[in-house]
Amino acid sequence: MSISVVINTYNAEKHLAEVLESVKDFDEVVVCDMESTDATRGIAEKYGCRIVTFPKGDITIAEPARNFAIQQATSEWVLVVDADEVITPELRNYLYHRITQTESPAGLYISRLNKFLGKYYMDWSHDYQLRFFMRQKTFWPPYVHSMPEVDGTVERAPLKYKMLHLADETMWDWIQKINRYTDNEIYRKHKKKYGVASLLWRPIWRFGRTYILQGGFLMGRRGLINAYLSAFYQVTLLSKIAEKDLRNKGQ
C-alpha cells in the first residue's frame, strides 16, 4: 500500500526544505500552494513534489484548501503535514507497518511535539492531531481549527511516534495569530450563546488545563505565559462573539 503526503503552503519557505527532506521517502508528496509570493514553489519543485494551486483570495487559513488538497493525492492513504512539521523516520516506518495490518483503522491521531519561546515542550506535553487517514473516507471542514471527519474507526498512534513542530512564534506572532484565528472561528461559533458565566469560566478553565493538567507549571515562565495565552484566546473569542451579538441587538 502507498501513502501520499499532502502539504498546504502559503509563503512557507522558512521551514519547507527541512519538512520536505523528512518526507521525501514517502510514495508521493503533494504541495497545495495558495499562490505563494516567496520561494515556496521553487523549493517544492527542487524536491520533485507534485504542485497544485488553490486560489488564496482573502483566505487567511489553510482549512478551506485542505479537502481540495487531500483529493489531489493518488494514494489510498494520506498523511497531512503542515509546512512547519517534521516527520520522524520512526513515525514513517510505523505508518507503513500499520496499514499492512488486517485490522488497521480508517484514521490515526498522531502526537505532535511543540516549541514555545525557543524550547520544545516536555515529551508528555504533546497534542494529538488527526492527520493520517484513508483518502476516500475523509472530509475536512473549511473552518479554522476544524478536524477531519473520518468515516470509520479512528485510533491514536503510540506516543513515541511523533511529528516535530518547528514553529517558534514570538509574542508578537502569537497575538497576531490569536486575532486572526478568533476572527475565523466566529464563523463556526457565532450562533452559540455565551453568557456572563462562560466569559468567566472558559478562560479560567483553559488556564487551569494548560498550566496544571498539562503540566505547564513545570516549565517555569514558559508554562505560565503559555497558560495566559490559552486563557487570552478564550477571552478574545468570547468578547468578539459578544460584540457581534450586542451590536446586532443594538444594545
How would you explain this protein's 3D organization?
- By secondary structure, the protein is α/β, with parallel strands linked by helices.
- The chain has two domains: 163 residues, Spore Coat Polysaccharide Biosynthesis Protein SpsA, Chain A; 79 residues, no CATH class.
- 41% of the residues lie in helices and 22% in strands.
- The chain contains seven helices and 13 strands.
- The protein is globular, with a radius of gyration of 19 Å.
Note the main attributes of this structure.
alpha/beta, 9-stranded mixed β-sheet, 13 strands, 7 helices
Q: Can you describe this structure in just a few lines?
A:
This protein has 251 residues and is α/β, with parallel strands linked by helices.
List the helices and strands and how they pair.
Elements: E1 3-9, H1 13-23, E2 28-33, H2 40-46, E3 50-53, H3 63-71, E4 77-80, E5 85-87, H4 89-98, E6 107-113, E7 115-116, E8 119-120, E9 127-134, E10 138-139, E11 149-150, E12 154-156, E13 162-165, H5 171-189, H6 196-213, H7 220-249
Parallel strand pairs: 1-2, 1-4, 2-3, 6-12, 6-13
Antiparallel strand pairs: 4-9, 5-13, 6-9, 7-8, 10-11
CATH topology of the largest domain: Spore Coat Polysaccharide Biosynthesis Protein SpsA, Chain A
User: How many DSSP helices?
Assistant: 7
Proportion of helical residues? 40-55%
Instruction: Specify the structural class.
Output: alpha/beta
Major sheet details? 9 strands, mixed
The fourth-level CATH homologous superfamily of the largest domain is Spore Coat Polysaccharide Biosynthesis Protein SpsA, Chain A
Mean pLDDT over all positions: 90
Beta content? 15-25%
Count of domains:
2
Indicate the radius of gyration in whole angstroms.
19 Å
State the CATH architecture of the largest domain.
Alpha-Beta Complex
What is the CA–CA distance across the termini?
59 Å
Give the CATH level 1 class of the largest domain: Alpha Beta
Question: What are the low-pLDDT stretches, counting only 5+ consecutive residues below 50?
Answer: none
Spatial shape: globular
Order of helices and strands: EHEHEHEEHEEEEEEEEHHH
Number of strands: 13
